[in-house]
Description:
Blueprint: H1 17-27, H2 55-60, H3 73-77, E1 87-92, E2 98-101, H4 102-108, E3 112-119, E4 124-134, H5 135-142, E5 150-155, E6 175-179, H6 180-184, E7 189-194, E8 197-198, E9 208-210, E10 223-229, H7 236-240, E11 264-267, E12 276-278, H8 286-289
Parallel strand pairs: 1-10, 4-11
Antiparallel strand pairs: 1-2, 3-4, 4-7, 5-6, 5-10, 7-8, 7-9, 11-12
Bound molecules: ligand MTE.
Ligand MTE is lined by residues 62-66, 120, 155, 174, 203, 216-217, 219-222.
Amino acid sequence: MANRWINTLNDNDVTPEDLFVNRRQIMGGALAGIGLVGMGQAASAAPEGLEPNSFEEITSYNNYYEFGTGKDDPAKYAASLTTQPWTVQIEGMVDKPGPYAFEDIMKAMTIEERLYKFRCVEAWSMVVPWNGFELADLLNMAGVQSGAKYVAFETALRPDEMPGVAYNVLDWPYVEGLRLDEAMNPLTIMATGIYGKDIPNQNGAPLRLVVPWKYGFKSIKSIVKITLTDTQPATSWNKANAREYGFYSNVNPEVDHPRWSQASERMIGGGLFSKRIPTLMFNGYEEEVASLYTGMDLSKEI
Ligand code: MTE
């Protein structure tokens, strides 16, 4: 298994924006499997036929409430976040709890490129070429103990660097959670880059979760703590409004948000021509993840 630093990925390993678009055009509709390991093995986990958004779009239309609630606030203000050095505390039901330096995590992980559609609960979507590693690899590094059932995540809370936390729009720090089997699913990644560049602060530097079959708010940014637990963890949006946001938050066109339909989505980009497309169950990843929810009533377990 090749251990690579994202910073030392060479030009042949990552996909510059223009090449990426060309390659996808060449590949046409034959996009199915999961994951890319560099340029060599071209495969994709984005639902068929979708073009990736531009780097500009992905990094200028954001949700990161620690820097304000406007879509352009994170790009304006997140530069103030110090992301080096960075430590992730891994604790709870693990064999090797403790602080993990970001550099050490990166040395131990295989960085891959994954093209994922990202569906926001506000009914827009983007297609993002992430660089990152599987969350399962990090959890296995810490050694998950039997009995652990959930993974809780926490974002940094830095009032000096985060102007938005002065406002009580959410109960800070931002927290999220996954069931352990969701966290271990190979589609679940920790993203550390976009288009082969280090992930910009507004997108959650230096590492953020990406869970492509769930609404975007599950993809918690700038993670400083991961806790393995046997109890379902609290999540920020559920605490803020339990009627609108449940623990699971799976993309589901059949269950409307109390204030709007979830049946279709507006694709960001293309200016006036931005397209509306039907939203797919589990955001198009049904084949890979539907079995995780067998026996659950997804109209109730939202
Ligand atoms: N993580 C933190 N810490 N704070 C946030 O406000 N917003 C969430 C999620 N992660 C958020 C967060 C929401 S609502 C969305 S839609 C995505 O981040 C947006 O990710 P993006 O800006 O990279 O597109």
